[in-house]
Amino acid sequence: MNLEFTQEELDFQKSIRAWMRENVPEELERVSALGNMPTKSQQQQWERSLGKQGWLALTWPEQYGGPGWTATQRYIFDIERAMAGAPPTSPFGVAMVGPVIYTFGSPEQKERWLPGITSGETLWCQGYSEPNAGSDLASLKTRAERKQDHYLVNGQKIWTTQAHWADMMFCLVRTDPEAKKQQGISFLLIDMKTPGIEIRPIYSIDGHHHLNEVYFTDVEVPLENLVGQEGMGWTIAKFLLTHERTTIAGVADSYYALARMKQAIEDVPYYTDKPSARRRMAELEVELMALEYTNFRTVAATDEGKPFGPESSGLKIKGTELQQKMSQAMVEMGGLMSLAWDSPSVVGNESFNNAPRRYNFLRACTIYGGSNEIQKNVLAKMLLGL
Amino acid sequence: MNLEFTQEELDFQKSIRAWMRENVPEELERVSALGNMPTKSQQQQWERSLGKQGWLALTWPEQYGGPGWTATQRYIFDIERAMAGAPPTSPFGVAMVGPVIYTFGSPEQKERWLPGITSGETLWCQGYSEPNAGSDLASLKTRAERKQDHYLVNGQKIWTTQAHWADMMFCLVRTDPEAKKQQGISFLLIDMKTPGIEIRPIYSIDGHHHLNEVYFTDVEVPLENLVGQEGMGWTIAKFLLTHERTTIAGVADSYYALARMKQAIEDVPYYTDKPSARRRMAELEVELMALEYTNFRTVAATDEGKPFGPESSGLKIKGTELQQKMSQAMVEMGGLMSLAWDSPSVVGNESFNNAPRRYNFLRACTIYGGSNEIQKNVLAKMLLGL
Amino acid sequence: MEFNLSENTTMVADTARRYLKDHYGFVTYNEQLNQASHCDPARWQLMMELGWLGLPFPESIGGYGGELIDVAMIVRELGAALCLDPYVDLVVAPGKMLEYIGTERAIVVLQSIVENDEKVACALYDCHAGYSVHKPTASIRDGKLSGQKSFVPDGGCANRVIATARIGDELALLLVPLESCEITRYRALDGSRYADLVFHDIEIDDGMILSRGAETSRVISQVIAWLQALDCARMYGAANALYQRTLEYAKTRKQFGAAIGSFQVIQHYLVDMFTDLQQLESMLFMVAVKAELGNAQERDRACSAAKAYYAEKAVKIAQQAIQIHGGIGVTEELDIGHYFRLMTHCSLTHGHRDFHIDRLASLREVNGCA
Amino acid sequence: MEFNLSENTTMVADTARRYLKDHYGFVTYNEQLNQASHCDPARWQLMMELGWLGLPFPESIGGYGGELIDVAMIVRELGAALCLDPYVDLVVAPGKMLEYIGTERAIVVLQSIVENDEKVACALYDCHAGYSVHKPTASIRDGKLSGQKSFVPDGGCANRVIATARIGDELALLLVPLESCEITRYRALDGSRYADLVFHDIEIDDGMILSRGAETSRVISQVIAWLQALDCARMYGAANALYQRTLEYAKTRKQFGAAIGSFQVIQHYLVDMFTDLQQLESMLFMVAVKAELGNAQERDRACSAAKAYYAEKAVKIAQQAIQIHGGIGVTEELDIGHYFRLMTHCSLTHGHRDFHIDRLASLREVNGCA
Tens digits of per-residue pLDDT, A68-77? Predict the structure, then answer.
């Protein structure tokens, strides 16, 4: 049992902290400090600067462009990144399609797609959900028909985050309509500039445009954009679910949010109820510590080459519940200040003015990637044997 | 919309309050003030004194010995009873078997059993649950075989509250083992002194003896103790579930508990955290008010001769949840004082010393009479149409 | 005790529901959301014809002598319809303020509101003075008003505001033309139009002082109690709409080959929403009666209990409505998310949960319980 | 970072588990529950042979130099077995107190504990002074001790107590023979044996004063931190036992023709218990390491966070265990209800949830967050 970082890790932390201090753009810090989301260019500029350092594809094997860090180093990096006010990197390239390509892809696919991910040049989006395949993903209907030299894709995806930013989409499609539910599904890479793709924005209740519907009408996708074999889509999707969980709990960003919360209260000259706000923050901090140390255990186990233990199974559920709870606390502590939705000037305190946007946005975090109810169903079956 | 009592009701309240002041024995008040349960003789003495007034069978038609009060009067009575430190009356005779007998019983049965209930002389217990028929009551196995001039009863009941006090048990038994689950069940009255009945105490985690197992070995029950027809047991059981709900939420006793809680905190000379205790009590009071006014609506509807509306459906769930929450708050506010389980002298404060017993006892209130999970299943089906 | 709505109140509620069904849908709402003024003249005219403008006020001044419960039933329907028409902000709030002030001057202004001749808003809060309405930072010195007001719900269309300010140690209510203030307008969380005001040494003549001294605090408290009750009414309308829509969705939305309402966990979520909704309705009846009581203790206890309860339970209903709807629930395209914002909004106006729990805890000290 | 138990600690835990399996079952527990003394000589002898009496103390004084985590793993197993042997109360608590005092006199007493020559308890709390251990009401005047102590966990068998008292403005730790006190003995909520003491002008000679002055407070705080961590260890053992038993029950108990574990609501209850249990385990590791830190701020932050978390989540697990078990869970006949009482008990010792949240909130003010 040893909860301290080694001297090497502390040195690493110091160097990352110093780099962050130099390199996180001030405007990005400000975006984070207010609980906002970066614009496409802010996000991409930031990811490119990480890419230049080789710090983007953190979990990847070195041969594909990973930095060769331990899980502990990645965790330290994540803390320093968050506390410096930088946003998390977009998961679609680095955390999702990248590992799929270097695990299941052909040598040509690796060569073609991986460099754009590690450099932050290519932006990806994820084409999984469909209108009638939400929690029940295996019901998806988007059809990819194999023609002479291409797949002909027809159908519709929904809830596609950043589709309007993306260069590429990785997509689950049905290649065999005869096969049973999970079996006819394949994993396809689609260039978002291909004719026949139409993107319709969906505005979220934080007032912003993150999500989209994507319509495919006779979209021709080269055969070489199939990853693995036809019918392997479901296997690949499951592979992603068990991949890397050391930051899934969002501990680093939650600590940053807690720090912002405390700052906001101190910043309001006449804040009337500091003792009660402090108690509430202490309650949140307790939950955050429990999550943090559970997360530490997953990180430490990863560094020892162990498989994810049962302690990691609740990280997504607990992490998202806590994010929601914290954002709600922020809104409530803001009182009337939380009502100023789009005031051109600060009303009382800007962090509180912005708080409801984050609160609203985070309602989705217990829904996407498998709702917490679905997560619990799976845990009951897989882990508890019920 | 009128939330005031009429002048008549206020006068009624005044007279009940005066009577309670005169007639609630001091030792009974003390029992309640400490959150304890009365002994058999305390309970029976109290019920007899109500019986003498004609105030025991409150909901019954006057012809059978009811006082002819409105639901509002009964509600007022309940408040005054509770706030005077008197315990609720045992439900088994007055609220359960009595209404069954005057609704389904023969003239002879009415004449024989009802007077003992209205006077408080006969104590009843309820023989429903069995070891393998808890939430799933219809699985019960206790067999009553029809012989020449009696039923021969064999089997076992469990969780029988006050069986060791009771003169009589009303009992669900299986008279037709061939019939489908609910259909072969009958409703039988059994004299607890009949040979072949054995009572085994079950101690609860409050340290007291309320519950029992009751074993029947070749117990002969006269044929005339069958209520209604054979096979009507399930119908009768369901009738009871929809009967009178104006005090099911336990509002009166919860207000009394809240008052005791406040008193206990004021009584401890060096209580360190009064502001936080007061906030916590305010939170409980808010929930109690919501329950109180929902309960008022049921009372008022009853007086207008309306059937129970949807507002009454959650009363048991909400009422029991709140009782548990309040008793937990009491234990927690007591801090170390709540640890003195059986000290011969007061340690700090006697109400806090006793608090865990009530807290422990009340764990059962979300379980008995159909667990809250079962209640929710039923509401989902019956009321929400799911 | 009697919990039935009177025939008259039922009629008011039914009429409101029909009127909104005919004149205000989700499309209307979305249009209004993007408009700078929320006082649609046609609908305002209709509201006047329905008698809403006079409803909350005594017949003696040209009103219809309605009770708080009547107004609450209208506001409940406004909440259920997501309607942003600033009826409470520009009629009820300033109107009750003027009625309670009761001076000849005040009644004249009230009558102009009732007759739809002008729009008056209330400016009671500062930008960080929390919920304390009795200690404004704005003040009058040497006949000049300076200071600021925030969170003024004027629908983007008021021409005057009733504002609190201090004159020496005294609390006062002033009637200030908006054109004399520096104004920043913005959209509030629920989509309504708010304004922040700065007073730059505005000349105040005696005619602009509606009320001053001890009486003023009492008037404000009475009006705030009305507004707290109406917050609950609006939230109830929204919570009920959310519950109905979510139940319907659970019955029709299929996943894994079955309606999601067939899953036990979803069933229990919905039962919890339903039972909470019943209790929310009880609390609405309770506060709608008690918020107009003369006994300040009982009134404030009722208002704080109701708002604290709503801030927890109605908000929880809105959260669960989104969770059960899944992705579609967090979009601007469906009304669910809009109700959700409304709910958060109303849980923060006129005291959030902490404020009300604290007030109850201090009232208890005086009052004893039950 | 490394969360594995050392080989040595693992051995300590395994040995404890085997020892308890062989020597302590639910039957033993029920017997002990009704005994006036909880110091079974045979088991005490075995504990000594297992090295438990010396484990928490430095080798220099005849101990085995174990760390808090080693002791925590023993206490976890004691919790899991419902064992009432007052190992923490009569060995760890007084022993660490004496070790930290560190005077020759104190070490002599510590050695007599380690060698099983006497039983010493700690008397730190008053009957209504809450959790403030630094301001006892007992005091010494003119060489005589008067006042009282409550909640002294002496297992019904201590012969001396280490008690806090004031000498003028100074805090002191005294070693008082129990025979000189008026004693009331009783059973505590978890079934352990407690005593209340009254001091009637007991003559105190200098040899009875173990420590006085500023140092004393520091010593007490260090010991309390150990005890808070061990509360968590005991609760973890109980919570894990409850979870395991409840999962097993859900798989075997049939209602409506199916195992109750097949119902989705029960499944989600159990998943919540399981994920909470994982986090409880993490917090146990955390506090077991940090509660022996020299940095008082970090130590107290860790202890308060852990105890506040346990008071909520471990208690919730115990409540759910009963709810899922149904009727049988509220009886004395099954161990479930006994674990439930243990859990409530430990959530109240050495600070309840409110106390710890308040302490964290005030530490934050000094510390800043994370």
Answer: 999 999 999 9
